[in-house]
Amino acid sequence: MNVRQRFKNAIFKRHMKESPLNCPDEIRAKLDEARFYHNQVQDEEKAMAHLIRSLELSERFDNLVVTAQLAYLIGKPDYQQYLDKAKKLDSIRFQNFMKNYWTYDALSI
Known about the structure:
By secondary structure, the chain is an all-alpha fold. The chain has helices at residues 3-15, 25-41, 44-57, 61-73, 79-89, 91-100.
């Protein structure tokens, strides 16, 4: 496994250990599908599609930041729009997330 893949795996594990308990079942299912496609199939594009579907159902802080992080890791320039939405939802939690969890490179894991 190369450094980029180890990096992506570590991020996904960090942010998606399990689906948030306060999510509706339909959103939780999409997050679980995204986790499956990332961890088992190693298909980030399919994982991204499921994350975007979860956002279409309901934009919540958790699915916004996970979508932003995965978009950043796979080189999609639209990751910032997800971060901006997360910040609008909960600026204090956003600051904590960016300080303690957001990862810019594999060396910081």
